[in-house]
Amino acid sequence: MNINLIPPKIIRTVLSFVPRESLASSSLVCKTWRTAAYALLYESALLVSTTNGSYSSPWLNFSSPNSHPEELVHRIIRETNDDGPFQISSCVRRLTVAWEMNEQQIQTFGSAVLRMKNLENLSWVVSVIDNTRWYDTLLLLCKKLPKLRSVKLVIGEHELDIPDMDMGALIGLRELAVGFDPQEETFEWEIPNSIIQLIIGAQNIESLTLWAQASDVYPSAISYNFGEDDIMSRLSLHSFPHLCRFSIGPFHSEVSLKQIVNPTFGLWRFARNQKQLREVVCYGNEGSMLGWDITSGHTESVPMIHRFKGSAFEVCALLRLNLVRQLEILELVHAESSASAGISDSRLSDLLEVLRNTHGIELPCMRSLKLSMSGPGIGTSNNVERAINVLGILASGAPKLQELIVSTSRPPTPYIQASPAHNTTQSVY
User: How far apart are CA 56 and CA 422, in angstroms?
Assistant: First the structure.
């Protein structure tokens, strides 16, 4: 068969197994292969130019201070229809930007991105832009790019108080993530109403993420009360008709299971008001979990939540809630760690003890049980035996169980890349 007759879709599938650094040489074999490889080479683009030398967030993790973004931008602007399948602008589907731009640069940047008609995902660190009207460019991109469905923003202190905007421009988004990046030691988290309005403007989103994290340079920059409950209380007044997934954290202080089961918290009220919500993800910094008591008033469950993912510590608390009876998927995450990390190695043993002392565990809707183990010592016979015993007791109360898994690989995370300095544990409700 003539290689030029092979459908490009098949060639792209083959090339997806080729290491990225080898794609350029592979694309020189013939025009057909080159066309397919070209689309893969520029499917994701990174525009980085910062004075810090590196940047890390739940979505981004790179150490190169400069990828010379202006070169790629000007190359895209110079493209013509004669370039055919070798137009970079038609290949880019995911764009990540951390670029300290002035007014002129941001206009040029906007002109280039407007040519990316297949762009689906935009991750933009606007916290590195000081006193520049980035939001005008964002709204224009959301209006003009027909396939743009996901926007992730990292906002700094100087970008919080944005002016009134045409919020209708965000109506086409399916995913919105907003992160807050402290840049100065005196930073105070006072989230203005304009940020709330920005979120509310994305009425058709199916996924919403909010997070903030203490600065590496100024670890005490964030006060203990970030104000996440205030944010959630304000958002709870609004309904997102298509929202099925909500993620919150990590924050300087923990967002605990208590907030999803206690009606006095904004997170509980927000979850109750979202009729399509099926999954709530709460992230906390590793080792930050604090002990707390669940009173009798904290037992009302959120009807739509069917999945829980958390540590042995949280599963112990979960067993005391009505919520456990409606769960269909339960994943227990156990991380072996040294005492210096603030995590007790005995939590799996503690959970086993609780289960053995609990009579009549009932999981009437449970279809899947999984225990994920990571860290040093995960393969020891004691840990494996504990894991099997924990799952065995839980399975005995699950008449509809279809899946039972013990995994010794690191549990997955929805973050694209997490910095080693910001190890996280996750709970999915």
Answer: 9
